[in-house]
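Here we describe the complex-level prediction in full. Unlike the single-chain runs in Section 2.1, the two entities below were treated as one system.
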Amino acid sequence: MPQPHPLDAMLQLQPQPDGSFVAHTHAGYANMVGPYGGATAALLLHSVLQHPDCLGQPLSLTVNFAGPVQDGAMHLVPRAVRTNRSTQHWVVELRQTNASGQEEITTTATVVTAVRRATFSADAVAAPTVPAAADCPSVDVRRAMTWLQRYDWRAISGNLPSVWDDSLHPTQSQLWVRDEPPRPLDFASLAALCDVFFPRVWLRRARIVPAGTVSFTVYFHADSAQLAAQGSAHVLGQADAQALRNGFFDQTAQIWDTQGQLLATSHQIVYYKE
Amino acid sequence: MPQPHPLDAMLQLQPQPDGSFVAHTHAGYANMVGPYGGATAALLLHSVLQHPDCLGQPLSLTVNFAGPVQDGAMHLVPRAVRTNRSTQHWVVELRQTNASGQEEITTTATVVTAVRRATFSADAVAAPTVPAAADCPSVDVRRAMTWLQRYDWRAISGNLPSVWDDSLHPTQSQLWVRDEPPRPLDFASLAALCDVFFPRVWLRRARIVPAGTVSFTVYFHADSAQLAAQGSAHVLGQADAQALRNGFFDQTAQIWDTQGQLLATSHQIVYYKE
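The structure predicted for the assembly as a whole is:
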């Protein structure tokens, strides 16, 4: 029997009688400590989308990384707080049992789903003109942290500095990226893709300092038809920062499909040390 | 006895024995239906900052407008879900009693507060070069919706179209704005200022369509010292959109102080009809 894709294995939810779910971290998405934050964000979104009461498709997702997620079992508690005619509002908690045997909240999320209708539509920012993914150098991640190996990376610009010399740099990066092994794009994998960019402070300063996302938001512009059309091809990602200030910087990101149509836009505020 | 500023009147909270608060909508911030969303966002943030357990200063705020807020009493229920050494995570519910006498959730928020330490700091986007507020034309809002009269507006660019002719326009606006009457800037008023921009879809299409914010996020780059230095002077605001798609558009915004230093960056996803 073929193994499921690591993302699908990670997203396996065991429904509980009270409407919550149990899931487990997956070794394939391991970060330095605990799982890759984008995978956790995908899981929180997925718990809403899998809920029998869920209506529509994702419109927005905000994930707050309140404390470290430990490897092992996770308790996902999605709650529909309001259902309107065309939107639905969810609050989600990710809880883990700590050493004292008590459940504590490691992560919270809010999710809005919506039933969308065709209207006037236009992208107000154009995709940057860049070489095709096949013409961009592949990034060798074979010796990198495990979660980085879950993606196929094609570098365009604003790559990791080759010399860490404390010189100052612009904060924008562009790259092509897809799941590895390839996997048809869906809302969960798109949410995870919005978080793949290395910390902007590393680029700005050509210096590696400890950093971790505190709050992460995704606005979904794509519907399931656009995701299906994209399939497992590389998406184009661009990330930048607006301010680095006293321990926290912001990151803005755009994800375009192969046709140059926005799939999602994303924002996060990130802790950094020094 | 002098009247309090309308914002301070709106932010008056009555502590309840269970740690929640009761507040009331204020006629000075009336929108077409219910209160101005920025005022509601300010109130949700304020309920956390006034909570006796609150540590540090605001870092991020996400407000989800789940249903209409009715004029009258509001029940604010902030809950600290996790307190770390330097960050604290809050979930807040705004509830109102409906016609059936039951409490229902109209609005949810998540707030992260942080104790910040001095580090390497740099703005990665420069404030645009614009004329001083005193040299920009004042916008006459005497006949506009009430909440618009709570601000003093100085137009720079990307103003409301003078002709609504369905012609297509860029989506960026720049303006100077401050509370009216003047009021020293604080975190609550800064949160409200992040939401003052008219819907980007009106500008893009030179057409007024129904629109309303669904989810709104503010990242605070300023600390209380920077707010105090700004006092009651006009702040510089800039707003833009990235995508308008099937009933929802996103809006990005930056708020700078008089010195051109970022105070906050903000994002929202907004419903629109047609």
